[in-house]
Amino acid sequence: MPLTIETCVARHTGDRKEQQDRVALFAHPTRPGTMMAVLADGMGGHTGGAMAAEQVLLKARQNFEAYAPQSETPAHLLEAIINEAHLVIKLTRFTSEQDPHSTAVVFMLQPGRADWAHCGDSRFYHFRGSELVSRSQDHSLVGELQRKGRLDEAAALNHPQRNVLLSCLGSEREPRVDHGRQLPLVAGDSFVLCSDGLWGYFSDEEIGGAVAALSAREAAQVLINNARERSDGYGDNITVAIIKLVEAPVTVAARQAAAVR
Length: 261
Known about the structure:
By secondary structure, the protein is an alpha+beta fold. It has eight helices and eleven strands. The longest helix has 19 residues, at 74-92.
C-alpha cells in the first residue's frame, strides 16, 4: 500500500519575551520523496540563542540540498550538519557579545527509511500507532542521572537542574551526536521533534496518543494548548514538528483498474 506524508510545524513563545526556538521542514530539490525536518532550541542572551538556532537550520538546508547518497551516508550527512553548525556558532562568539548555544534534532525521510540525529535535550520520538518505538536520550544532567538509575521519570520532570545540559552546539567541547534509523517504514509510523518547552509537560504515552488519534495539525495544536495550560504562566518557548505516514487514498481509477484484473 503506497504511503503519503502528513506534516505540521508549530511554535509558541510561551511566557518568554523572545522566541529562540527554530524549526523547519523542506523537501530535497531533486529527489522525490526525500525531506528533512530540523528543530533547534537556542540559548545565550538577547538574540544570541535565536541566532544560534538559526545557524542550525541554515546549515541543515545547505547540506541537505547537496546530499548525494552515492557518496554520503545518511548518518554522515546528519552528523556533519550538527558538527558544522556547532563550529559556525562557536565562531559567532568572536563577532558578538552573546554566548550562543543551541540544541539540534535533524531528521531525514527517504523512500523506505528514516534517519535522525540529535544533540542536547530537544527530543525525537518515533511512534508506531500510539506505541513508542524509540525516543532520543537527553544530553542533560537529569538525563544522565536517569540513565544511572538515580532518578525516575516523574522526579526528572521536576528536578531543579532539569535544564543543565552536558552537550550542546556552541560549547567548548565537541557536541555529542546520537543517531537512530528506521527501515522499512509502514503506515502508522509517526515522528515528533520537539523542544523541552513541550515534552516537559507530557508523558510519552500522552504524546503518542495525541499523534495517533489526530491529524498532524490537530495534534500539534492540542499539545501546545495543553502545555500552555499546564505551565501556569511559566512556560518556555514551545516548538514541535510532526511527520505522519498514512496510507495514500485509493483513487476511483485505481479501484476500477483493480476490479478489471
